[in-house]
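A favour, since you know our C-alpha cells better than I do. Just paste the record in under my message, thanks.
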Amino acid sequence: MGSHRWLCGGVLKRNTMLFRPNLPEANCAAINFIGFASICKIFIEFDEKFWPDNWRGFNALWRGQDLPSEYWLKDIYGFHVYEHQPRVLLGWASGFHVDVIESMDHDALVQGIMDMLHRFLPKFKLSHPNNVVTTKWSIDPAHLGSYSYPSLLASEYETGPAQLAQPVNVLVYDALLSADTAVSVRATHMKPVVTRPVLFFAGEATSPNHYSTVHGAVETGIREAGRIISFYENE
C-alpha cells in the first residue's frame, strides 16, 4: 500500500474541477446529485443547572404568530440535557440558516438563544450562561457541511453512494516499454493491458446503507483499504 496515499477532505461538491483529468461521468453525477447538508450542535454551559433532575429537555414547535424576529432561531429544534455534563444543555439546529448560526456574532447568538429559552421555559429561573459554543462544519472550508443524504435528484438520475464509490481506473503498460512500443504491444496482443485503480472514494456519502453516520464513514474506509489490498494480492 506504499504507492497509495490517503487524502481526507469533504469538499467534492465545491471542487470537482480540481481533478485533472476530469472524474468519470458516473462519479461526477453522484457528486452533483447526492444531497449534502449540515447540522449544528449548540452547547450552553451554566454556573449551575436551573432544571429539575427529572427534566430532560424540550423540542421547539413555533406557532405562526410566535415566529421569532431572529429568523435563524426557528432552525433550532430543541435543547436537551447533555449526558454526563450536568450544567450543559445541547441544542440542535438544521436547515437553511445553519451557516448563519455558526458564523454570527457571539453576543447576538447568546441573546437569541436566551430569548428562545425564556419563551419556551417561562416557569424556569434561567441564569446567564458561562459559555456558548457551536460546531462549525458548514463554514469550515475543509468540510462545508456534515452529512450526505439521498436527494430526489439522485433518485431521478439513478445515482447514489454506489456510483460515487466506484474507483477510478487507468490502463497501465509494462514500465520498461516506451510509449510507442506499448501501443505496438497492445495492438498485437503480445502483453495484456493492466487496469490499475488509482483513485478510491470512501466516506459516509459512499455508504449505501449507513450514509450520514460516523460508522458508515469508518466502514467505507475499511472497504477501500480491502479493495487496495485485494488489488495487490491479485496483481
In short: Residues 175-186 have pLDDT under 50 and may be disordered.
